[in-house]
Amino acid sequence: MSIPSPHHSARDACAVTADGAAWLASAETYPRSALAHWRSRPCAPAVLPCGSAFDVISAPAVFGRRMLDHLWEEGPGSGPVAAHRGRVLLFTAPGTAQRLPSLLAWEEWGRTVPSVLCHGTGDAVTVPPPSVSTPDAAPATHLESRWLVAPDTRHPWLPGPEVMLWACVRAARAAASAAVRISIFPRGDQDAKVYDVSRRR
Q1: Helices marked H in 4-144 — which ranges?
Q2: Which of the four pLDDT bands, split at 50, 70 and 90, describes residue 115?
């Protein structure tokens, strides 16, 4: 398995390849039926089960973007990533959802990591459609659900619990540092630094 490069174009980041769609479908009991459904409704989001092909770590949008920034700038990069209704969904190795909460508790970072949800075996998540929606095709869906780092291989590299802990801790530290700067310099720029990860894929 290869670690994805952050130097792809924004267009590549939004488009799921045929191999990427096959990987997503592999999470289903009947992958061929899932692929047939996507061919008939290419701009419709899908609900996929977690725990076999992948787990998903869901974070609030700004915190999730901070995690992505650290993963790409300082760490090994990320697996596929989606944005859905105000949250960032990071696809991770199976088992991550079970292990990450205990790691956060052990490191005592659970109190400072905001509303990170771990979806594993027995859970399901809504993912963006494999096709890129156009503004005329499905404007509401396009805005609420989109790929930031789209699946492009049948065997994507997926971060495990230790990598996700690392990203959570650094994002929490960055948030705490920003809060201190805001309290000391209340007249300065208080906007959180948010990155468009699609520019790096």
Answers
A1: 10-14, 18-25, 31-40, 61-73, 96-106, 139-144
A2: confident
Q: Can you give the pLDDT at residue 175?
A: 74
Between 13 and 65, residue with greater pLDDT = 65
First to last CA, the chain: 17
Which residues fall within 8 angstroms of residue 66, CB to CB, at 6 or more apart? 170, 171, 174, 175, 192, 193
Largest CA distance in the chain: 57
Q: Which two tokens stand for residue 20?
A: 């990427």
- Assessment of whether the complete model's pTM goes beyond 0.70: yes
Q: What is the sign of the dihedral through the CA atoms of 154, 17, 60 and 45?
A: negative
Residues in Cβ contact with 182 at an 8 Å cutoff, skipping those fewer than 6 apart: 188, 190
Distance CA 132, CA 5 (A): 21
Q: In terms of residues, how long is the chain?
A: 201
Residue with tokens 């809060």: 179
Residue 28 backbone dihedrals phi, psi, to 5 degrees: -85, 155
